[in-house]
Specification:
The structure is a single chain. The chain is α/β, with parallel strands linked by helices. The longest helix is centred in the C-terminal third of the chain and has 32 residues. Helix 6 packs antiparallel against helix 7. It has nine helices and ten strands. The chain is globular and about 65 Å long. Strands 3-2-1-4-5 form a five-stranded mixed beta sheet, sandwiched between helices. Strands 8-7-6-9-10 form a five-stranded mixed beta sheet, with helices on both faces. It folds into two domains: 153 residues, Nucleotidyltransferase, domain 5, CATH 3.30.420; 171 residues, 2-Layer Sandwich (Nucleotidyltransferase, domain 5), CATH 3.30.420.40. Bound molecules: 5'-O-[(R)-(carboxyoxy)(hydroxy)phosphoryl]adenosine (KG4). 5'-O-[(R)-(carboxyoxy)(hydroxy)phosphoryl]adenosine binds next to helix 4 and helix 5.
Length: 361
């Protein structure tokens, strides 16, 4: 985790803790790394509010347009933060710190959240906490909705982090001690799903559409290429090419092939991706003798993947941790909970900390 401590820039103790009560830590989390503008408020790790404005503007383009995303963030950030504070019943001067996504993500999008967090933290005289977006996805499992919520995984656990930009197996030893033991060498799982959906002429993002169609199709109808990669790494570009070339052949025989078979295509694609993901995860869990296994990121909303986790719990004795749908895609609650843990470590960041578009976990 690449946060920087600069003690000379840290606020005086009298400035810390805000007005949140003698022992309360109240964190405002801000997320703006891609196309969701989100703000959340947490008191002592318990979620009080989580407000997200999604950007439908990208649907017409079949993918996120960075310039449009940053413009929409600029429009959304003030009302979203305002709503999050109102719903939490918290005023700005009660905040203990502001946690924000520093990266990875789209630079123009990140800059909106980072600059907003800096301005607000400076005006309130409270610390800023930079959060790695990927760490946030993993720690989404620690968001408490009530004080007695005990659903979080124990350390160590494995987390399959699958999104539009990442496919990783993460060994989580502690809140601040994570190691990527396997990751994609080319496309991410979500990216492959989105691209195959685009090739089929379905909408964007493809994940939820493929998921819906797959429920009505036969997962064994078609076979697509599975990669043979050593270790715990993933690859999805071969599958994408195999899907494309097969489809091209089938369309030559039947120009309406997609329309006639889209449910079977979606189900077979989903099954192939879930098999690829679970095979490596199973091997990693066996080798490391870890049976607490979590899933995180946008693709963790997928029905087939969730069912595969439940199936592995039954067959291999895993205890599985599957996030609520609202914590699968980008959200500020996960940034807030990560900020809460970093606050306890006094792991603050200096005002000049830049956003970063690329960074490892
Ligand atoms: O984590 P996320 O919201 O954004 C980042 O990539 O950071 O993940 C978005 C990805 C997209 O590729 C989207 O198609 C996929 O998650 N996704 C799904 C489902 N819902 C979203 N993939 C499969 N099934 C779903 N139900």
């Amino acid at each position: 985790m690449s946060s920087t401590n600069d003690t000379s820039r840290q606020p005086r103790p009298s400035q810390m803790g805000g007005g949140g009560g003698a022992s309360s830590i109240i964190i405002l989390g801000i997320e703006s790394s891609c196309d969701d503008t989100s703000a959340a408020v947490l008191r002592d790790g318990v979620l009080l509010s989580n407000v997200t404005a999604s950007q439908a503007v990208h649907e017409a383009y079949g993918g996120v347009v960075p310039e449009l995303a940053s413009r929409a963030h600029q429009q959304n950030i003030v009302p979203v933060v305002d709503q999050a504070l109102k719903r939490a019943g918290v005023s700005k001067d009660q905040l203990s710190a502001i946690a924000f996504t520093r990266g990875p993500g789209l630079m123009g999008s990140l800059l909106v959240g980072v600059s907003f967090a800096k301005g607000l933290a400076a005006s309130l005289g409270i610390p800023m906490i930079d959060v790695n977006h990927l760490q946030g996805h993993v720690l989404a499992h620690f968001i408490k909705e009530t004080e007695d919520d005990t659903s979080a995984p124990p350390f160590p656990f494995l987390c399959l982090l699958v999104s539009g930009g990442n496919s990783q197996i993460v060994l989580v030893r502690a809140y601040n001690d994570m190691q990527i033991i396997g990751q994609t060498i080319d496309d991410a799982a979500g990216e492959a799903i989105d691209k195959c959906s685009k090739v089929m002429g379905l909408g964007y993002p493809g994940g939820p559409i493929i998921d819906r169609l797959a429920r009505q199709g036969n997962p064994e109808a078609y076979q697509f290429a599975k990669p043979a990669i050593a270790g715990y790494d993933y690859s999805f570009s071969g599958l994408k090419t195999s899907f494309l070339y097969n489809l091209r052949d089938w369309l030559q025989d039947d120009p309406d092939f997609i329309e006639h078979h889209k449910a079977d295509l979606a189900a077979s694609l989903e099954r192939t991706i879930v098999d690829i993901l679970m095979n490596k995860l199973r091997r990693a869990a066996k080798a490391l003798k870890i049976n607490h296994v979590a899933v995180a990121g946008g693709v963790s909303a997928n029905t087939g993947l969730r069912e595969a986790f439940q199936e592995h719990a039954r067959r291999y004795g895993w205890t599985v941790y599957i996030p609520k749908f609202s914590y699968t895609t980008d959200n500020a609650a996960m940034i807030g909970i990560t900020g809460y843990f970093k606050y306890q470590d006094k792991d603050f960041c200096p005002m000049e900390a830049p956003a970063y578009s690329r960074v490892a976990l």
